[in-house]
Amino acid sequence: MAVNSPNSPRQKMINLMYLAFIGMLALNVSSEVLEGFELVEESLLRSAKASTQHNDRIFGDLENYYAANPAKTQEWYEKGAQVKKKTDSLFNYTQSLKERIVRAGDGEEGNPEQLKHPDDLNAAYEVMFEHGKNDAAKLKARIDDYREYIVSLVTNPSIKSIIESNLSTEPSRKAKENKQTWEESMFWQMPMAASITLLTKLQNDIRYAEGEVLGDLLKNIDILDFRVNKIEALVIPQSQNVMRGSAYQADIVLSAQDSTQQPKVFVNNHFLPDEAGGHFVANTSSTGTFPVTGYIEVTHSDGSVLRRDFSTQYFVSEPTATIAPVLMNVLYAGIDNEISIAVPGVVSQNITATITNGSLTRKTNDIWVAKPTKIGEDAYVSVTAQMNDGRKLEMGRKAFRVRPLPLPSAYLTIPDQNGNPLKFEGGPLSKAALMGADIVKAAIDDGILEIDFTVLRFEVSTTDALGNTIRETSENSHFSERQKALIRGLNRGKTVLIRGIRTIGPDKIEHLLKAPVEIIIN
C-alpha cells in the first residue's frame, strides 16, 4: 500500500509537478501582449519589404548609370555595390537567426510569419546562447561593424545620428539596472514572438540605413547626363481660372535643371525669351477655354538635344461678384441694411465696394452695411477686386430700389401669467393690466425687419354714460396722470382706444399711425 509521506517517490513527483506549474504561471505572457507583438511584426515586415524594393530601384539606377558611363560613375557604383553587399549579408544573417529560433520553438516546419508557440521562452535562448554557441555575441559584433561602415558614408549629421541610434548595441537603461548585456536584454528569457519582432525591427533599421546611403551616392551623379529620362516639362499657373481683363500667368520649367545653361522654351508656337525665365503671360480679352502647349529643349554636353513636351489649359470667365441683401430685395432709407458681397476666387481683404446713394461700410469679411439716404432714387453698389498682379478690376454692379420704412404697429407690453413680457396689440384686457402698462410702444416686427420706433404723442379715447367721447392726450410715450385717471374710472365692458399715435423712426421721419389699439376692459 502506497504511503504519501514527504519522501515517497509519488510525493516527490507531485511536488515537482506543482513547482513546474507555479513556474509556468509566473512566466505566463498574456495573449494581449502576444497579439500586440504580432501586429507590430506585420507592420515591420511590410515596411522592410517596401524599403527593400525602394533600395533595389535606387541601386538599379546606379547600375544603369554605370553601364552608360563607367568612368564617371565607377566610384559611386562601387561604393553602392559594397553597401548592398554588406546590407544583404547582415539582413540575411538576421533572417537565418529568426528561422532557427522558430524551428526551435515550432519544429522544422516553423514559419517566422506564422508562429505556433509565440510564448515559447526557450527557443531564442537555445539558438543564441546554448550548445557552446554564442550567436548573440556574433550578431552584436556584425551590427557594430556594419554601423561603423555605414555612418562613415553618410554626410547628413541628422541622418547619421538616426542610424547610430537605430543600430546601437548599447544596453538600455533598464538593462544596465538589471546588469544585463545587450545580448541578454534581447534574447534572455524572451518570448519567441518578442525575439522575432526585435530581429525584424533590426532588419528594418538595416534597410533604412542602406536606403539613406544609396540615395546620397545617387545624388553625386550628374543629373543632366544620366537622369534625363526623369526630366519633365512643367507648367505651373498662378491659377487656371482667370477673369476677363486679367492676365493668365504661369511658370514653365523643368523638374530638374542645369544651372550652367538656360533651356529653350516654345509655347503656343512662339519662342519664350530667355530673360522671361520661363514666366509666360497671356492677356485675356474674351471668355472661354484656352490651350497652353509647347515644348522645352535642353542641350546635353555631348551636343544631343533633349525635348520635353507640355500641354495644359486655362479658363477665362466674366468678372462676377455676389451682391445680395441679407434680409430683403430692397434697401430702406435711413437705416443700416446688411449686404453680402463676395467675389469667387478673391479673398475678402482684396474686395472694395461703393454705393451711389448713401454710405457703404464693411461690417465683417463678407458683410457690408448700406445706408441709403434718398427715397425713390436707386442705389448702385459697385464691387472692385484687386488681382494677383496688383491690378484692380470692377467685378460687378447692382441696382437697389430705395424705399421708406413701412409703418410700425403700436402695442403695449403686458406680463403673462408667468411674468414674462407679452406684446399686446388689442383685445380684452383687465383694468389692472392696462394700468400697469405705463408706456405705449411702436415697432416694425414682421419676421424680416425688427426696428423700434419712438412714440412722440398719443391720446386715450372712451365714452361716458351718456355716450359722449372723452379724450386725454399724452405728449410722450407714457400714460399721463389724466389718462390713468380716465382708465381707472372705467367699468367692465368699456372700450378704450389708443389712437392719434405719432411716431418717429431711425430714418428721422414722423408718422401718424392710422390703426388704433382697441382695448375692451374685462
What this model shows, in words?
Helix 3 runs antiparallel to helix 5. The N terminus is likely disordered. The chain is an alpha+beta fold. It has four domains: 192 residues; 90 residues, Immunoglobulin-like (Sandwich); 82 residues, Immunoglobulin-like, CATH 2.60.40; 113 residues, Immunoglobulin-like (Sandwich). It contains twelve helices and 26 strands.
The amount of helix comes to: 25-40%
Strands, count: 26
- Which outline best applies? elongated
Largest sheet: 9 strands, mixed
Mean pLDDT: 80
Q: Give Rg in angstroms.
A: 45 Å
Tally of distinct domains: 4
Unreliable spans:
1-8, 10-29, 223-229
Classify the beta-strand content into a percent band. 25-35%
Helix/strand-derived category reads: alpha+beta
Between the first and last Cα atoms, what is the distance in angstroms?
A: 114 Å
SS summary, helix count: 12
